[in-house]
Design a protein that fits this description.
Strand 9 and strand 10 form a beta hairpin. The strands form two sheets. A seven-stranded antiparallel β-sheet has the order 10-9-13-7-8-12-11. A six-stranded antiparallel beta barrel has the order 1-2-5-4-3-6. The protein is built from five helices and 13 strands. The protein has three domains: about 80 residues, Elongation Factor Tu (Ef-tu), domain 3; about 80 residues, Elongation Factor Tu (Ef-tu), domain 3 (Beta Barrel); about 30 residues, no CATH class. By secondary structure, the protein is α+β, with helices and mostly antiparallel strands.
């Protein structure tokens, strides 16, 4: 599990094709890997990867073909700056929100606009993910826990403060940059529960028509009230 509070940025030191996927060699920079061991999880631009070797500040991680195809990992090149976070420990502060490191899809930067001391980024997301992205809700973008300021159609807007800009690789984003997205896991579970509830109520209604409305929450009700 991760929080989306990026510990530091690192650089892609090397990329090697392997078994349909690839192996990344990452220079972790200032990330303290002294307590890390082979087999530990490290989020790289929000992707939960397993360290396969660790030598000083350098670690390697394998990326399966499925992960490469689903995320923006396939767009990485040697020298690229990446956001890094080690897995959450029980005694750690929960400064962001609960993240799994399992990417739901990718988004694309559509526009960048100064906004006072901050900067607005409009991100286009796949239509099937937008139902989980809510105004004032949380989303992980390239491994960064961020608050959604607004949504419109298939886009959402973020306002990035200077500290977050300095601590992450956001300053390197440009229009067209492809980003890893992980929606709030709680929204996913709520949607799943409601879909199962709706299916059960539909079956009950078919079995006993004329007995009245089953009632209950629906995805439309939650969406209209900003919960999903």
């Amino acid at each position: 599990m991760f929080t989306g509070i990026v510990e530091c940025t690192g650089k892609i030191a090397g990329i090697k094709s392997a078994s349909g996927g690839m192996t990344l060699t990452i220079d972790a920079g200032a990330l303290d890997l002294r307590g890390a061991a082979v087999g530990d999880s490290i989020a790289v631009n929000g992707i939960c990867l397993t360290a396969t070797s660790i030598h000083g500040c350098i670690f390697t991680a394998d990326v399966s073909h499925e992960t490469r195809d689903l995320t923006a990992a396939g767009y990485l090149r040697p020298g690229d700056v990446v956001n890094l976070e080690q897995a959450l420990q029980p005694q750690s502060r929960m400064g962001g929100h609960i993240m799994t490191g399992h990417i739901d899809g990718t988004g694309i930067v559509k526009s960048i606009t100064p906004n006072g001391a901050g900067t607005d980024y409009v991100i286009e997301a796949p239509n099937d993910l937008m139902m989980y992205i809510a105004k004032k809700g949380s989303i992980a973008v390239s491994g960064i826990s961020l608050t959604v300021n607004d949504t419109e159609g298939d886009t959402f807007r973020l306002t990035i403060i200077p500290h977050t800009m300095r601590a992450t690789n956001i300053s390197l984003w440009t229009p067209g940059t492809r980003l890893n997205l992980e929606v709030d896991v709680l929204a996913r579970y709520v949607a799943r529960i409601l879909s199962m509830q709706g299916a059960a109520e539909g079956s009950a209604g078919d079995a006993g028509k004329g007995t009245g409305d089953a009632g209950g929450l629906t995805l439309e009700t939650l969406g209209a009230n900003g919960f999903i």
